[in-house]
Structures are given as C-alpha cells and as structure tokens.
Amino acid sequence: MKRIVALAGRPNTGKTTLFNALTGLRHRTANFAGCTVEKACGTAVAEGLEVEIVDLPGTFSLLAQTEDEKVSFRFLSECAQSSQDMIVFCVAEASNLDNDLVLACALKEAGYPVVLIVNMIDEARLNGVKVDYGILSATLDMRVIAASARTGEGVDKIIQVSGPDSARADLTHALDLRRASRKRLHDLQESATTLAHRACARSVTWPRTHVLRTIARSIDIDRVLMHPVVGPLVLAATMTLLFQALFVGARPIMDFFSELLASSSNLLRARLPEGSLAGLLCDGVIPGVSAVVVFVPQIAILFAMIGFLEQSGYLPRAGAMIDRALRPLGLDGRVFIPFLSSFACAIPGILAARTIPNEKRRLVTILLTPLMTCSARIPVYTLLISAFVPASLRPWGMDGQGVVMAAMYAFGVLVALMLALVLKFTYLQESHPPPATLLPPYRLPSPRELLRYVWARCWHFLSRAGQIIFLLSIVLWALASFPRDHSRLDPLEAELRSVAAGRSPAARSQLELQAMIASARIEGSALGRAGRAIEPLFKPLGWDWRVSVAALSALAAREVFVGTLGTIYALGGDSQGSQDLIKALRQARNEDGTPRYGLATAVSLIIFFAIALQCISTIVTLRRETGGWKWPGLLFCCLFVLAYSIAFAGYRLTIALGG
Amino acid sequence: MTLESIPLAQAARVVGFRGLDEIDKIQLNGLGLRPGVLVTKILRTPLGDPIECLVGSQLLAIESRLLPHIRVEAL
Q: Which chain A residue has its CA at the smallest distance from B26's CA?
C-alpha cells in the first residue's frame, strides 16, 4: 500500500505550488467521495518508491464551517480509521506563522502525525522575518522543514521526509474529526492557538517595522486598485480585457482548428467512397472532435487570465469590490468572473466557478451561468432578428436590430438574477456567508505555475467532459442520418448520378440536388421523425416540424440550429447560406398561403433559446462539475418549463399586439 | 469601543466580541481575528463594504455589519 502524504493548511499558504513542485505533471484531479469538492492527487518518487500526495482543500480551523473543511477532515479521519500509512504535511507561510501554526498544532494534538512545512521562506527573508527552526521544532515537538515551493528551495528535503524510509506513523489514537464533540474540537483549537503563540513568540523574530514589507506594498497598491473611482475603472478595464481576449483572442485559434478539421473532413470525403463510413468519419467523428477541441483555446485563455489574477492576489479584491452589489440577490463578488466568461461560452464559465470555495455558492453560480448569452446563441439571434425585426425600426434613432440584440444580452442577465433571487429562498442559500475574506499579498505570478494551472484545466476538460461531448456528437449524427427514407432518396440520388455523369439534361443543378438529398435525409432520419413527433408540443409557440427538428439538432451546439434549418430548406448546411435562409424564412408559406413564420414565432424562438438549457456540451460539463446527473437534469427541466412558458407568453403577446 | 468607531489608520487591539453569532466568531478566529491581535482599518472598498483591515500580519476584507460587534482598545 502506497504511503499517503496529505497536504493541509490554510488557503494561500502555497499548498498547491508545493503540490506541483512535489508531483510535477504526475497528477490528476477527481472529486472527494460523495461530493463535488475537487481532490488533486499526484505521485512523488522518494527513495525510488512512489508516495501518493493529496492536496486537501484549504482549512482554517478544526471547527469545520465550510464544505471544504469538512471534506478535508473527513479524508484525514477515514485514512486514520482504515489504518492507512499517512503523514500530514501542514503548510504554513513563514511570514504569517502566528496564524498558520494553529492548524498544525491542532492536528498534532488530535493525534495525527504532522510535519510542519514552513513555506515562502524567500518572502520571509524579504520581510526581515527570522525563524529559529530548531526552537520551533522543539516547542511544537514536530519535524519542521523550511522551504520555498516557488523557487524549489527545500523541496528535496520534503521529498526525503515523505519517503517510505521514515517510520510508519501510528494513527491508532488519531481523533475521528467527523464524530468528535464540538466541545472537544473547541478545546483542541483553543490549546492549539495557545501553543502556536508560544512557539511563535520563542522562535520568530519580527522586523522592527510595524507592517511587513510585502503587506505595506500591498496596502499601497490597494490604495490605487481599490480607490472609489480608480478601483471600479481598473476592474472594468480588467474585465473588458478578459472578455475581449475570450471573444476576439480565442476566435482566430478556434477558426484555425475548425478550418483544419473541416479541410480534413473534405479531404477524407474526397478519398472515401460515398457511404456510411464516409458519413460517420466526416459528419460524425470529425465534427465530434471539433466540438471538443474548439473550446480549448477559450478555456486556455480564460484560465491563463484567471490564474494570473488569482496568483497575483487581485481576484479576491475584485470580488470584495462588487460583493455588496450582489449580496441582496444571494450572490457575492466571486460569481462575477464565471458570469462574465459565460458570455463567450458557458463551459469556461462553469469551470471558472471552481475559484469559489463555498460549495452552495459554487453550485448556484454553476446553475446560473448557462443563462448568459454565449457566442453560440449569436448566429441564432442574428438569423431571427435579421429575418423578422424590420430594418426600418429605429427606436430613439438607433439601429432597431442592434437594440434587440443588446436587449437579449440584458434579458439573459435579468433571468439569471431573478433566478438567483428565487434560489435565495431554497436550501441552496448559503446559510452563513464568510464574514471576512483573506486578501493575500500581491505577488508576481510564476510563469511555470501559470502554465501548470492552464494545462491542468485544459487537460481536465479534454479528459473528462471532452470524451462525453465527443460520444454524444456521434450519437446525434447517427440520429440525424438514420434511418434512410429510400422512397425519397433513391430517385434523387439516381438523378444526381445521372446529372454528374452528364447523361441527362440538367433540369436541376448538381448543387441543388445535393441540397435536396441532405434535406430528404434529415427529414427521414430519427431526428426528423422526432421533430415531427414533438411538433404538437411546440405548436403553441408557433413552431412547425422544421423549426422543431432544428431546435432538437441544436442540442449538439446552439448554432447548429441555423445549419439544420438551412439543410431542411435545401439551402445547404453552411452558415454562408444564411442570407438565402433569411429570404426563405420570410417567404415560407403555409398551404393556405399565410406566412409560415412571423415576428411572433421569432420572439418565441429567441426567448426559448435565451433560457433553455439545450447544449449537450454544457449539460455534460454541468454533470462533471456537480458530480452527477441530478443538477443538470433538474436544471434542464426547470429551464425548459421556464423557457416554454415565457416563450408562449411572448408569442401570444406579440400576436395580440399585431405582430 | 468597537472597531466601527475606530477611524481609518488608527491601530487598535482586539479585546473580545459582543453579540456576535457563534459561527461568525469561529470563522473570524480561524481567519486570525481573535482577542489580543492588533487591527488597523486600512480603507473602505469602493461600495463602502467590506472594509479592508490589517489584522496581525495579514489583510482581511471584513463585512461592515460585524464591526460593531468587535470590541477593541485604541493604541
């Protein structure tokens, strides 16, 4: 059985940097059993043998208040109960020992084998803080190692101590922290605080200045970055930069990936004989890969920026600045970045919620992020607005179509905030929001740490959500391709072959015939039949079977709606055909000659797309981040009902107003 | 005297808590705000709440609703 080394400590003590220094890239992330709190595990090689390193969530005190703290103590207690070979490395910041030593002392008093890692000794030197490690070790009666995980100083010693050569710790008397009485934990915490103060007083020499150098520098920076006028401006500029980087910066890379995969698809199609294999590879596998890979640039850019903001110390300050405005809605400043990121795509937004340590708050944020207007909704809105909002509409001299588009962004935010208000009265309301937030000193992020952080997030997405997104993309392709309606397809395919061979006069061009075949294929497929089957359900919203099929296919990605509608109208599935599609939608007539779609249908469609959770990639990421299908399932149903109801109201109201 | 009545930049020592919720007290203790520690209010965040304070050798953003419950003595 491998030895387990649990890294414990307060947040911002450099635990994760130490974890990365010990494990390199040999780590993986998973959730702790039965909850969604993330567990980072890795292996380090000590004396030729592997030891398992577990990075526990940050903990402040034995009197666990947050889910993170409960999970950490549950893990330690379970290891003790199952007689695992475990040591706890308690990480403390050298310049903040009077606070950081308390947890180490408390765990030691509770019977756990603790080694104290005094981290960030380089920063302590800069601050003029001197620690006598011999006296510290003697007072605490525990092994103490001085290190700087950032520079690598002392990491060798830590690896050596974690090795199997050191004696197996006795955990038989370790306290089960899950079942211990509140009073017992309180007493342990009190005596640990006293011991920590005594150890600090004996072993630490503080500089003469009242305020440490790094703290004084941070206060000076805060006077600018949290200034009543400059602060919000800097915050707005930072968020604009993040938004622009996601929207504009990621676009060329995403386009490059998409074009590369599209060219591969065309190349393959030209070489393979026409048939199911070519269809599977070119219309199923390659678009499936594309559906996964295309998100990676956005995720990488987002997490590079979040990592920078987090490691520099600005992120908790940005949260503190907007905290008050969001509190009446049951939210706080930490939801800002996930929400903002979701305007590009809900997936990085959902992943960005990982920066929120509180479990319930994180869940609420995750549930609300899909309501922000992501970039995939834009082609749908553009098509419907261009087709049905008159270009002559000019409210207050502004472009009416542009105003409607902006209103849809505001609508998404409004619905999310209203739902936040509703969730405030459910069990998801955080019963006791943290009364204070730790503001770590400003630090220059290490490029190596930043790269590791970005890589870990991208790999996490590719290895977890990516696999399911890929598989579901293929399933959707199969549903849109089979079964084949031979009674319609065979004559069209025969005509195409004949036209291609130049044997018959071309009444219809080759392109027209190919578009008609694509249209016939989707109409006869399981997806097409499902669209017809659900037509009565969506009839009250003004949708016919064509729109219903397109909405079903948009489960793959919202923008697919435009392509599918184009295919059904035999215009070809590419977005270049959208001008023709706008014309086709405007001119479409029912059998009695009345227009098939009007402004009311467009209103119901736009509202439905704004609210409904109809993106498989988002649903899969939700499942991954919430640890099961319960929340995505519930959210899908609730948002469907809400989207349907508001879309119906919008449809009827528009008709009543003469639309 | 409470932390609320202490002006910005005035150093004070925490002497105890009054009327504070037990959970808030535990959380503040965990964050290092406990009797005996030195505290200085540094600045108000742009919306006026929370308040950035120097607590011992670290910076905390403390919700202003708690300040009347933190008893201090001015230094």
A: A63
Q: Is the dihedral of CA A5, A361, A228, B14 positive or negative?
A: negative
Instruction: Report strand pairing: A114-119 vs A86-93.
Output: parallel
* Mean pLDDT score across all residues of chain A: 85
- Scanning every residue of chain A, which has its alpha carbon at the shortest distance from the alpha carbon of B67? A435
The verdict on a CB contact (< 8 Å) between A211 and B42 is no
Helix (H, G, I), strand (E, B), or coil: what is residue A491? helix
Closest CA to A366 of A4, A36, A114, A68: A36
- pLDDT at position A38 over 70: no
Each residue's pLDDT tens digit, A320-332: 998 888 888 888 8
Residue closest to A324 by CA, chosen among B3, B44, B31, B37: B44
Closest CA–CA distance from residue B27 to any residue of chain A (Å): 7
Query: Tokens 């790999």 belong to which residue?
Result: A459
Cα distance between residue A467 and residue A477, in whole Å: 16
**DSSP per residue over A156-212, as a string?**
HHHHHHHSTTSPPP--TT---TTTS-HHHHHHHHHHHHHHHHHHHHHHEE--SSSS-
Residues of chain A contacting B39 with CB distance shorter than 8 Å: none
Size of interface A-B (CB pairs under 8 A): 112
Please list the residues that pair with A49 across neighbouring strands: A46
For residue A577, name the pLDDT band (cuts at 50, 70, 90).
very low
The answer, yes or no, to whether residue A574 has pLDDT greater than 70, is no
Percent of chain A having pLDDT more than 90?
33
